[in-house]
Amino acid sequence: MNTFHKFALLALISSVIVGCSSSPTESETETTPPISSSDRYQEERYELKHDVAPDQPISVEHIEEITPQYEPYSLGGNKNYTVRGKRYQVIKDPTNFKEKGQASWYGKKFHGHLTSNGEVYDMYSMTAAHKELPLPSYVKVTNTDNGKSTIVRVNDRGPFHPGRIIDLSFAAAKKLDVIKTGTANVEIEVITVEKPTTQTKKQALKQFQIQVASSQHKDRVETLAQDLSQKLSVTSFVNSEQEIHRVILGPFDDYDLTQKTLEQVKLLGYSSAFVRKN
């Protein structure tokens, strides 16, 4: 294996294990160990050197709050990993997990890039990054500086800065008024949703959709939606918002059918597909 192929392999592995919010800043390089080839890849794979807010910030009032639901943990992003010489262990059982510290946020630099579990980072979605919670997890975040709170879906790794416990998407940070200050004191609490039993399937889990993939290329997403609709014999459509286009299957009224379709989607290669409420 030549040097180029070795570097490419390291880059690929790093992009899966260490998500969008994990690239180190210039100030970190003065106090941390020398940058490895995989860490250097994290710095170089983005078009922007520094993270910024959108060119034309929009109101996020129309963005709905996330409703926690049961989701199996992702195939990717849930193994123990090392960043800048420090080892991180993914929490196996996050029930009753609480944590206090600082929240930061990440935006345009990472928009459209892969998160640690293989999804596409959308700064206008209510998501977040955490170093050790299993992916995905639902977390209630309370800004203790102003009392505001919201729920986010953790699908990425980070932040790797001393004292910071969670990286919020632009939308989530906007709702908590973290954009102006850059960071805020927060308390986070994991919301655990038990796997539904046979008795609750028909009552609690109705009208669900499967989000297969998202991309900035609308034509590709539309083609994929049509292709999956034909292969799986299900309804599909494209949901577009702020230059991100998502392939959605459904809605489904039957929980068993939803899960069976999700398994088929993953067998087709879309391992980051997940179920969401309609």
Could you provide a short overview of the structure?
With 278 residues, the chain is an alpha+beta fold.
Beta strand count: 12
Multimerization status: single chain
Which structural class do you get from the secondary structure elements? alpha+beta
Beginning-to-end CA distance, first to last residue: 48 Å
- What is the total number of structural domains? 2
Strand percentage: 25-35%
User: Could you say what the CATH architecture of the largest domain is?
Assistant: Beta Barrel
CATH class of the largest domain: Mainly Beta
**Rg, Cα atoms, Å:** 19 Å
| Mean pLDDT score | 79
Low-confidence stretches: 2-18, 21-42
What's the main sheet like?
6 strands, mixed, barrel
Count of DSSP-assigned helices: 6
Helix content: 10-25%
Broad shape: globular
CATH superfamily of the largest domain: RlpA-like domain
The CATH topology of the largest domain is given as: Barwin-like endoglucanases
**Strands of the biggest beta sheet: in what spatial order?**
3-7-4-6-5-8
Order of helices and strands: HHEEEEEEEHEHEHEEHE
